[in-house]
Amino acid sequence: MLDLIADSSAAPRTLNVASPDGLEALLARLEPGQAAWLRGHGFTAKAQELVLLPGPEGIAGAVLGLGSDPQEAASPWAFGAAPFALPEGTAWRIEGAPDPHAAVLGWCLGGYRYRQLKSQLGRAPARLVPPPGSDAALREAAAICRGRDLINTPANHLGPAELAEAVHALGATHGATVEIVEGAALAEGFPAVQAVGGGSPRGPRVAVLRWEGAKDAPLVALCGKGVCFDTGGLDLKPSAAMLRMKKDMGGAAAVMAAAEMLMAAKAPIRLLLLVGAVENAVSGTAFRPLDVIRTRKGLSVEIGNTDAEGRLVLADLLAYAAEQQPDLVVDCATLTGAARVALGPDLPALFTDDDGFAGTLLQSGQTKNDPLWRLPLQGTYVSWLDSPVADLNNVAAKPMAGAIIAALFLKRFVPQGLRWAHVDLYAWNDSTRPGRPEGGEVQAARAIADAVMRMSGPEIAAGR
User: What's residue 146's pLDDT?
Assistant: First the structure.
């Protein structure tokens, strides 16, 4: 992200912003020649419309249109196209942004590209001189960009060991302690994680990060599905469905980004971050349909489908988190295609029985332009997970309500009375839009971090 930021010594040009209602006022402030130039271009200040302004030495500045929707104008995406719309390598400051925090965030997210494996980096983005007080926006952007890097990294470069090491590096940066559980200890303590990852030569791991922002503070647990590649197991996915499965660790990337934001902001909480890092592979040691596996909680699970593996990973993580007696638990996962059918790629599904926490998360999502949509934990569907040979099945026989069924499965591993939320997300941009380049996307992290930061200690603990 360093190539996106400049300091004031870079002599930045000014990027003026305008809505259609404020266009005449902007024209009155500009030099007459620049105002005439802008009129000659037919500039109307529609969203993403950008015109460079001439000066004695070439380009003197630019004007960016925000459109007529105040909410869109104040979002990060209003500024997301600027880094590659403005001349390469030039430095800019923004004048007149409705929300300076969102403008800085949008600039940084729009200038992101995954280039680590390219021999030629390509066009450099324009750089921003951020206004004073931009530290929080820069922290958010850095966390999101690191999460995007993880999702975009090909699976042959990011397996369970590498994902667990990324948690270790995150902990080292912020003074947290990190334990990596693997081998015999993993098989004993996280048997469902072991079952999912047992088909891969790259052994599964659970990364456990602990951080203390304040003594005797509420404990917040974040759990992430870290399936580094998902073939579907013996219930093999078709090739088209397997194509983007390097993103199946997007839930882990989301909780890691949220954890980074909370630690960087020195949130007055204690933090527990759990990442189940596995590869769901096909081999002679892979778990099979109709196998019955044990879980950390002691419940036995019949495997109705090996491609419903993420909920098995989260089951053990949630059981471990519950043992630590947290005040709040949130899990994130690229869990079901059913959630995408219902809500599309941009809107993660939120499940929780706690109306107060749901309201806070939804409000934070709107405030941070990181939206969620609540779906029900429909109790009448619980029996769909019944099994004749085990405590429950990992899928339902009925081809309906897949996202709800997955959430109800997870709920079996959360003690009654524990404040818990589950987020089913997509973690990918199918095409490039302002601020959201095609590829891995970190969803819900800013909403989760904001919700935790906005809740006082008693509010977090209210669900216990």
Answer: 98
